[in-house]
UniProtKB/TrEMBL annotation:
InterPro entries for the chain: DUF6316
Organism for this UniProt entry: Marinobacter gudaonensis
Boundaries of every DUF6316 domain copy: 5-58
Name of the protein: DUF6316 domain-containing protein
Superkingdom, taxonomy of origin: Bacteria
Amino acid sequence: MDTQRRTGEEGPVPFRSSRFFCVGSKWYFTTREGFDSGPFASRERAETGLKRFLHVVRLLPEEQQIH
């Protein structure tokens, strides 16, 4: 569990869990919005998939970004 504060957070740190999970032998990542992406062959590939997803989200115009 991540116990660090994020920028702009105040008060107690909310519960957080890993963005990555495994079902059978396939790996997935989940977003804060509840979107699950996968399957990936390994956790490392799921981590790469998440980095690519976040890169694309950052390229979106501010009004279209996922919050």
